[in-house]
Amino acid sequence: MFTYARGWALVLIMLLAAATVQAQEAPAGRWWHNKQVAGQLQLSPGEIQQLERAYEDSRLKMIRLKSQVESEQFKLQTMVEKRNVDDGAIRAQHRALEQARSQLADERFAFFVEVRQIIGPDRFQRLLDMAPKGRRN
């Protein structure tokens, strides 16, 4: 039987895990628009265009995937809050949530790799070194 207290503990763990994933991201936003960063990395106009296209494509996918994660979280939370819980159903819903999170993480990583391909490994490492310590991957 899934108790109410254990249910809230599960929700808390899920929220902490989501915060940890966000803290591991590469530099946020459109950092190539920052003239100082673009200058230090010696980005060409063509590279900036490639980064912009990659960002827009990835951002649209991540918006959709984040929405899916929120939907799966809501479904799981609703199940946890019920007095009587079907153990199999709640485990299946947890798997659905983890799959949605995994897809979002995969997309974040795909963008990370694409940026590395666009600017090359040396400038990519310099970019990581410029990122605030809490945002380094």
Any overview of this molecule?
By secondary structure, this protein is mainly alpha-helical. The chain has helices at 4-23, 35-41, 45-81, 87-119, 121-130. It has one domain: Up-down Bundle (Four Helix Bundle (Hemerythrin (Met), subunit A)), CATH 1.20.120. It contains five helices and no strands. α4 packs across α5.
Task: Please name the defining characteristics of this protein.
Four Helix Bundle (Hemerythrin (Met), subunit A); mainly alpha
CATH topology: Four Helix Bundle (Hemerythrin (Met), subunit A)
Strand content: under 5%
What's the overall geometry? elongated
By oligomeric state, this entry counts as single chain
CATH architecture: Up-down Bundle
Largest sheet: number of strands, sense, barrel closure = none
The structural domain count equals: 1
Structural class: mainly alpha
Instruction: Let me know the average pLDDT.
Output: 84
- Low-confidence blocks of residues: 19-25
Q: Termini, distance in Å?
A: 39 Å
CATH first level: which class? Mainly Alpha
Helix content percent band? over 70%
Number of strands: 0
Q: Taking Cα atoms only, what radius of gyration do you get, to the nearest Å?
A: 19 Å
Please describe the topology of this protein.
Elements lengths: L3 H20 L11 H7 L3 H37 L5 H33 L1 H10 L7
Helix pairs in contact: 3-4, 4-5
Short description:
The chain is an all-alpha fold and 137 residues long. It has helices spanning 4-23, 35-41, 45-81, 87-119, 121-130. The protein has a single domain (4-132), classed as Up-down Bundle (Four Helix Bundle (Hemerythrin (Met), subunit A)).
